[in-house]
Amino acid sequence: MTTDTLTTNIVVASDKNYLNYLDIVLKSLLAHHQSFNVFILNTGDISPEWMEERQQFFAQRQSSLYSAYINQNELQRYRQSDYITQATYLRYYIAELFACSQSNRWLYLDCDIVINGDIFRPFEDKRFSQFSLGAVQDPFVSNLAQHRFRQGDYFNAGVLYINADRWAGTTEQLIHLTEKLQETLVYGDQDVLNVYFHEQWFAIDWRYNCQPEHFLSGSVNAENTSPDLIHFVGSVKPLAKSQFVCSVQKAVDLFKFYDKITYQTILENPIGFFKFILRSK
Fold it and tell me: Which pTM was predicted?
């Protein structure tokens, strides 16, 4: 299987424990885009029936949904801690998918994300052809007094605009670097990716990876502010029965909206119809 050269390819890594959140990613993608491919990196615990049910909805947006199987044994070498599970290391295997498409445009997304606009625009940045990836600076790690793996700017690895021409062939090198640094990693593979791609990435606008820290710091405070992608980093997720501060609650409500709405309702409306404005008041 190969795709058109202009097609954007999206990779999401997940397991059966995050299917509710994976659905939110997929629904919100279909609400704002068409003509793209999604590859779900998984270790085989997402059933074929689950995939087949959603593939029919993707076809209605001239898009495709694929399961990309990685043997669970591959992940046993990685340590997990707190909310950083072995599944997060699935993104190391993105390069194994490049043969499926002639396009060099690959977008990696964590599954605790909701899309709220056109997230393909960063691919048009003239810097894209010059670097391995584009990403948003991590506001939390950047504000720490110190972090041993922060070499200048430090990016959040939950949203990665990948240039396949430059990223290709990195899987074994990332694995080797992880084995070397594993005893001292704080943020798992995100630390490894920052070390490996130091000076090989360019910074994009925070609107393409808006995190709770952006809400808390006041970045999302202007009238009609509307981030195109919201990423709920951290151990407490938006569908949990938890209390959130008022500014963050706005993002939580958007996750809950997509959790409840059906695929069919989304497809009955035009692309971009479900655009939410996160007002300051």
Answer: 0.92
